[in-house]
Amino acid sequence: MTNLATPASPPKSETVHVSLTVNGKPVTVEVDPRTLLVQLLRDHLLLTGTHVGCDTSQCGACVVLMDGDAVKSCTVLAAQADGASVTTIEGLAAGGTLHPMQEAFRENHGLQCGFCTPGMIMTAVDLVAHHGPGLTEQQIREGLDGNLCRCTGYHNIVKSIAAGAQAMAGGSGSGAKVAAE
Ligand code: FES
Ligand code: FES
Predict the structure, then answer these.
(1) pTM over 0.85
(2) Domains plus CATH for the chain?
(3) H helix or E strand, kind and range, residue 121
(4) Which residue CA neighbors atom 4 of ligand 2 most closely?
(5) Going by CA atoms, what residue is nearest to atom 2 of ligand 2?
(6) Residue 109 half-sphere exposure, CB side, CA atoms within 13 Å?
(7) Under 8 Å between Cβ of 77 and 35
(8) Closest-lying ligand to the alpha carbon of 146?
(9) In b/e form, how buried is each residue of 99-112, taking b as 16+ CB within 10 angstroms?
(10) Beta strands in 39-168 (DSSP E)
(11) Residue 55's pLDDT is what?
(12) How far apart are CA 167 and CA 173, in angstroms?
C-alpha cells in the first residue's frame, strides 16, 4: 500500500533584521536575506525617488549615499546596510527646500524626463564631497561614468553639477568652466 502521507511543506525562508538610518530616521525592517538595498528603500520604505533603470548595474538611477559615499543600491544587499546611514534623494530636500544641487539642476535644465536625475544628483553630491566645489569639468564627466542619461546629452547635467558645487560652497558662481555646446 502506497504511503500517502502529506509531504513536509518547504521550510520558510529565513529573514534578517536590518537596522539602519535612512534620511536621518532610524529604521528596522525584517527582510529576506536576498533583498537589495534598493528594494528595501522602494518596497519597504516607499522611498520611490530612488529609481531602477536596469538589471545590470550600469545605469546609476539607483545611486544613494551610504555612510557618505555614492553606491548603486541595486548592487548592495539590504543586510550589508545594517548599521549604515543612508541618504536618498528624498533626504536632500530638508524641510521642503531643495538642496543646492537639486536647485542647480532645475535652474540649468539638467533634466528632461527626470528618470536618471535622482542618481545623477546623489552622484554629484558625492563628487563635490570628494573633490570640493572647484571640481573640474573633466572630474565631473569622469565621475558620471556610471550614470546613464537617455535624454539630455549630458551637457546641461555637467553644467548643473558645476553650478551646484559652487552653490553648496555658498557661492553663486558657475563653478567649473563648461565648454559651450
Ligand atoms: S538600477 Fe541600474 S545601476 Fe542600479
Ligand atoms: S533626463 Fe531622461 S534619462 Fe536623463
Answers:
(1) yes
(2) 16-92 (3.10.20.30), 94-168 (1.10.150.120)
(3) helix 117-131
(4) 149
(5) 113
(6) 5
(7) yes
(8) 1
(9) bbbbbbbeebebbe
(10) 63-66, 69-72, 85-87
(11) 85
(12) 8
Specify the pLDDT at position 96: 85
pLDDT per residue rounded down to tens, the chain (181 residues): 444 455 555 555 699 999 999 999 999 999 999 999 999 999 999 999 999 999 899 999 999 999 999 999 999 999 999 999 999 999 998 788 999 999 999 999 999 999 999 999 999 999 999 999 999 999 999 999 999 999 999 999 999 999 999 999 986 544 456 655 5
With beta carbons less than 8 A apart as the criterion, state whether 115 and 53 touch.
yes
Cα four-point dihedral sign 55, 57, 61, 66 = positive
Which ligand has an atom closest to residue 59 CA? 1
Specify the 3-state DSSP secondary structure of 57: coil
* DSSP one-letter string for 130-157: HH-TT--HHHHHHHTTT---SSS-SHHH
| Spatial separation of the C-alpha atoms in residues 122 and 64, rounded to whole Å | 6
Length of the chain: 181
Q: Can you give the pLDDT at residue 180?
A: 52
Task: Write down the pLDDT at residue 175.
Answer: 47
Query: Ligand 2 mean position to 134 CA, how many Å?
Result: 25
pLDDT of residue 11: 56
Residue 99 cell numbers, joined = 538642496
